[in-house]
Amino acid sequence: MSIWGYVLGAAVVLGAVLFGLANLTQTAAAQNVMLEPLTGQALASDDSLFLVDIRTPEEWKQSGVVEGALLLTYSTPEAFLQVVAPKLKPGQRIGLICRSGNRTSRAAQQIAPLFKGEIVDVQGGMNRVLVQGYQPVKPTRMQGCASC
Length: 148
Description:
By secondary structure, the chain is α/β, with parallel strands linked by helices. The chain folds into two domains: about 1-30; about 30-148, Rhodanese-like domain (Oxidized Rhodanese, domain 1, 3-Layer(aba) Sandwich). The protein is about 45% helix and about 15% strand. Strands 1-5-4-2-3 form a five-stranded parallel sheet, with helices on one face.
């Protein structure tokens, strides 16, 4: 066999190992993350869910927010949990909502290894919740919007 055959074989084996490790890590980190298409009413009324809107103040003002949600623009999982963890009741799940679900998907995967409880990633974000007819409320300082 030529040197290129060995190089190609080694590259295939290395790729398979890295792919397997990446999937193993992602699966392990995501065990406590649930993607759920909750309605706006369910988000506003479910006491077992601590809802956090991770969008920016401009987005909150533009479309409104779910009643009772904590407004906290996401930066890092550590900063997020430093603010959110003290507010959680025992056994309460964390719910994450953004505009379309992209940011919450990434944030949930980053928070998951650091949080023992369940994380609910709200499928489709505020876009889906609003299309389903939910009437949002104006963001307030009490919810966490410093510029509202």
